[in-house]
Amino acid sequence: MTTSTTTTLAEPLMSTNYSLRASYYCLNATGEVPETTATNPTHPKAQKPSKTTEKASEVQVTGNAVQVPRLKLSELNWKNRSRFLEMMECHSFVVLTDLGESLERVHDQVLQDFDTFFTSDDDDWKNECISKQIYRNENKTPMWYCGYEHTSVRDCFRVACGDMSRLVWPSPEFKDHWLSLQRRMEKICDRALSLTVGYEIAPSHARSDENFSVCYGLHYPNIQGSGQSETENVFEHVDPSLYVVEPVPSVEGLDVYDPHSKQWLKAEKVCVPGKEIVLFCGKALARATEGRIPGTLHRASYKKHFALYLATVVNEAKENWGINFAYASLFNEANSKAWKFPEPQEACHFSIATQSDMLTLLRKQLDMLGLQDVLISGAEQKNPGESLFTLTTVIADVLPGVDSIGKFNAHGSDSLTPYTGMERDKFEVLTSKKRPTWDFQYADEDTTGLTMAENIVRDINEMKLAAFVCRQWGGGDHAI
Questions:
Q1: How many beta carbons lie within 10 A of that of residue 478, not counting itself?
Q2: Where in the sequence is the signal peptide annotated (predicted)?
């Protein structure tokens, strides 16, 4: 059985122009506790977990304040097994603190190596580190090439820990620092697994079974904006592994769900970046413990990257292509549940609170690039009633995003069904000449044009419309 581990490293940025992350994964072949569990004697110093998990929890929720479950790295031992398991069963994660100077130092060294390698202009050096070795997971499924990889979203360096014989390292120092950190991460995960199963397991490097461990480093070039690959698993998910170790980043990225407080926790806000490690678990551990320790739901969040990407496109269009945008629009029918995965994606679903956050971030990024004259379109929903609901919710909840909206958009038709509701006049009350309103998308199947004419009149008179945008019906499922 191979220890199942993940380690993601993120230190305070050494430059404001990029984000760095490094990760270490140890994946097991079966995801099951070995049959010898019953015959292996419990460690003599092991404590049995208490049945009063809720009472023993070290997380308290007072209003919006959440105290995170913490355990010193030196206390991840048999003496504290009961305490550790109670935390994991209650929250599915623990934050390890007091990592020690040695671990923090090697962590720093690895990130310095990333800085040197990923930001280098020497493409020949990077390309020499591209490997033909394909990593296959525990199911023998080919996943990716080891070594260096460049995409439009990020740069990456991956190591298959079970077979590093064909890997080309960027430098001897890079290799030494990497392996030093990797061994420390393996040790943490092996210890966590031992405490869980109740007996001392052999270290990852000493076992005879196949090692599916993976270690990788990531580089997001923020200065150019950062798109999001459709194939990247950044939505809320549980990893396939046993234990996961992720050093707390100083940049936005890791959100962990605490089932005890029923809240999403932003690691960089509730923990100490670069000084603490989040230890959580995956599907394999949940199966191995028969659900006693649940898999940790987590997600990667890149709101700032998204806002920066859009602002950068607007700026590039102005500076290099001579195109001046008057408006920038973040969303298309963001309230609609029709755009939630796995439905066909013409748009994307965002909660209203997230819409508010994104509007504020985009305004800030546009201003930083000297694009104060570019206004932001907001509340663009599938009909005036839905747009009205968005605006009233933002205002009622005192969300700051409404202050960033320079133009209000509403769709006058839901697909090919014209809006016939009575919300137009209410929508007009919330807007003004300073912030004009557009019927941004209209379509119907009436070839006479009478239905469209009627809706234009209603929009102008009742909603005080400033512009009317019509999609010409092209037949079938096509709109022009």
A1: 9
A2: none
